[in-house]
Amino acid sequence: MKENISALVESNTGCPMVSFVNLIAGKWAIPILYRLILLGEPVRFSELQRAVRPITQKELTRQLRQFETRGLVDRKVFAEVPPRVEYQITKLGKSLRPTLDSLAKWMTTNAESMSITSASRKQYRQ
After folding, report:
1. Where are the alpha helices (DSSP H) in the chain?
2. Residues 6+ apart with CB under 8 A from 106
3. Residue 16 has what pLDDT?
């Protein structure tokens, strides 16, 4: 059994956890997705950036493009001056809510036992 697990980890194929981590890779991935899920409606780039600060424009753009490519986020461009772009979580993206809710609950429950105070949580958000 141990050999089977080692083979999966080494090859990175067939392991759903490795695939999931690759899907949500990046410091800001989970906060962006979770915010879009909670909002549940189209949101402009600047509003999303403010909601997930202190993320940089470059990083937010990169993450949103990855999510769009993976079918987790829809992007709608309006032919206006100045240009307006809105992002919205897709049905597939919304299906992550129970998973992300459980991660948030776990962190809230266990933060103290891991010596993570609210001050240090703020540090992780930056």
Report:
1. 2-11, 16-23, 29-39, 45-51, 57-69, 91-94, 97-110, 118-125
2. none
3. 85
Question: In the chain, how many domains are there?
Answer: 1
Residue 7 lies in a domain: no
pLDDT at 116 over 80: no
CATH number at residue 100: 1.10.10.10
Its pTM stands at: 0.74
Domain assignment of residue 19, yes or no: no
120 lies in a domain? yes
Kindly give the pairing relationship between strand 84-89 and strand 43-44: antiparallel
Question: What is the C-alpha separation between 43 and 89, in angstroms, rounded?
Answer: 10
In a domain, 50, yes or no: yes
Instruction: Specify whether the CB–CB gap between 14 and 8 falls below 8 A.
Output: yes
Which residues, listed in sequence order, are joined to residue 76 by a DSSP beta bridge? Answer: 86
Q: Which two tokens stand for residue 78?
A: 């309006």
pLDDT-based confidence at 75, cuts 50/70/90? very high
